[in-house]
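Q: I'm building a small set of examples for a reading group on sequence design. Run inverse folding on the following structure and report the sequence directly after it, with nothing in between.
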């Protein structure tokens, strides 16, 4: 009787070729090599833009580039399909003046845009408006994140319009949107929730349309995409980041029910709620759209101790 032993080594290979698998996408039951994952990711972004009519031919898109992996994935994927789709892409960064964080992110954004040959528009909050988000938070006695949100929304809208771009693209991913949906649903903020769509249309002549091309892409996919494209990105988080725990809850459900996140996000795309129309005024100090006499940004800017 033969005593020979056979060692069988299983190595997972790509579902589309014979190369080694680098990522397994459970939702799609796909094992992909580096080449086919990049191709899959860019195709998905392209199809999503077409499906939701996010960008028209000939338009100029400004990508809000924070320096994190998600907005980098947004910038790289839009650039890769821009010619085929007939639009052009530039980047926008806000230096918020956050100690130990903003400097690193700004340097990184400048370096990447230089390397890619992408036009970068930059706003240095302290230099242009005389305050940082941390200073304003102390004066207004509001959490830094809430002041930061006001500043970002205001500047992104204003700069996109004044610089003459048609759309502002952010790097929000599927996990961000699910977290947002949980929070808003529980706080009964249904109108806010209904606005969180892949395309937020122009609701007022001074409000620029906003798009979220990575609405159906996960954090894991974004990280894999930028890494496989050969980019490293800063891993440092903003010191003011507050972890709500909802992303972990969604991941636990996903572990028990494969496909939960994708099904949830597709429902969010369809969720509607009557939006209040025509309650936009313009701020009496800066002329930007506002729901009150003085806009939230001007209140932050003019706050006294
Ligand atoms: P966050 O509000 O930090 O979750 O970021 C959401 C998206 O806003 C990012 O994916 C970026 O597209 C954009 N963003 C955040 N911070 C900045 C920044 N400092 N400059 C430009 N865009 C930003
Ligand atoms: Fe806005 Fe952290 S990035 S407070
Ligand atoms: Zn392959
Ligand atoms: Zn104002």
């Amino acid at each position: 009787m033969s005593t020979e032993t056979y060692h069988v080594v299983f190595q997972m290979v790509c579902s589309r070729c014979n190369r080694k698998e680098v990522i397994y996408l459970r939702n799609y039951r796909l094992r992909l090599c580096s080449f086919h994952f990049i191709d899959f990711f860019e195709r998905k972004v392209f199809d999503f833009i077409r499906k939701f009519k996010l960008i028209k031919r000939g338009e100029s898109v400004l990508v809000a580039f924070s320096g994190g992996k998600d907005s980098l994935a947004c910038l790289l994927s839009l650039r890769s399909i821009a010619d085929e789709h007939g639009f052009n892409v530039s980047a926008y960064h806000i230096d918020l003046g956050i100690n130990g964080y903003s400097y690193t992110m700004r340097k990184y954004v400048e370096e990447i845009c230089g390397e890619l040959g992408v036009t970068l528009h930059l706003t240095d909050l302290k230099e242009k408006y005389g305050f940082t988000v941390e200073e304003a938070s102390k004066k207004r006695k509001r959490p830094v994140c809430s002041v930061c949100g006001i500043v970002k929304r205001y500047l992104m809208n204003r700069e996109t319009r004044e610089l003459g771009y048609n759309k502002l693209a952010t790097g929000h991913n599927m996990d961000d949107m699910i977290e947002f949906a949980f929070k808003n649903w529980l706080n009964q903020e249904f109108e806010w929730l209904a606005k969180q769509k892949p395309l937020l249309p122009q609701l007022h002549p001074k409000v620029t349309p906003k798009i979220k091309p990575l609405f159906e892409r996960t954090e894991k996919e974004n990280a894999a995409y930028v890494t496989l494209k050969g980019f490293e990105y800063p891993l440092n988080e903003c010191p003011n980041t507050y972890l709500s725990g909802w992303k972990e809850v969604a991941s636990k459900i996903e572990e028990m029910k494969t496909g939960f996140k994708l099904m949830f996000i597709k429902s969010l795309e369809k969720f509607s709620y009557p939006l209040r129309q025509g309650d936009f005024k313009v701020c009496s100090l800066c002329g930007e759209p506002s729901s009150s006499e003085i806009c939230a940004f001007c209140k932050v800017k003019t706050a006294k101790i």
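The beta strands are 23-25, 30-32, 60-64, 88-95, 120-124, 167-169, 199-200, 210-211, 281-282, 289-290.
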